[in-house]
Structure formats: C-alpha cells, structure tokens
Specification:
The protein is mainly β. The protein has a single domain, classed as Beta-grasp domain (Ubiquitin-like (UB roll)). Helices cover 12% and strands 38% of the residues. The chain is built from 1 helix and 5 strands; from the N terminus they run ββαβββ. The protein has one helix spanning 21-28; strands at 2-7, 10-15, 35-39, 42-43, 55-60. A 5-stranded mixed sheet has the order 2-1-5-3-4, with no helix packed on it. A hairpin with a 2-residue loop joins strand 3 (35-39) and strand 4 (42-43). The chain is globular. The protein starts with a strand and ends in a 5-residue tail after the last strand.
C-alpha cells in the first residue's frame, strides 16, 4: 500500500506492507518517544493501523523551560 509520510515538514510517498505506526517508525529510523503522530489530520496512538492512501505526519516534540 502507498502512504504519504511527512517527517518534520519533509514529504515523501512510500510503499509499505500492512503495518501500524510502530512498524513504520522502526522502518524509517524514527524514535517514537520524540514525536507526536497524526494520521489524516487526527492525532493517533502508536498502535494505529495504517491504510492505503493515509497521510502520516510525525511532529517533533519540543520541551523546555
């Protein structure tokens, strides 16, 4: 299946087998604890299953004081 992947504003279309956010992050070398994930404009949990045509966005979590 094809999905659109956006990591910190950089877009690419990738082809993956059926998977979820955790598997996608591992395959892309993304450390999930550093990101908030949105699929089709909705914040989702890490075990969210992906479908063909999904737009998956990873937003870096920034904290400070």
């Amino acid at each position: 299946m094809k999905i659109k992947l956006v990591v910190e504003g950089k877009n690419k279309t990738i082809v993956i087998k059926k998977s979820n956010i955790i598997d996608l992050a591992k395959n892309q070398g993304i450390v999930l604890s550093n990101y908030i994930v949105r699929v089709n404009n909705k914040i989702v949990p890490e075990d969210e299953k992906l479908k063909d045509g999904d737009v998956v966005e990873f937003f870096k979590v920034i904290s400070g004081g």
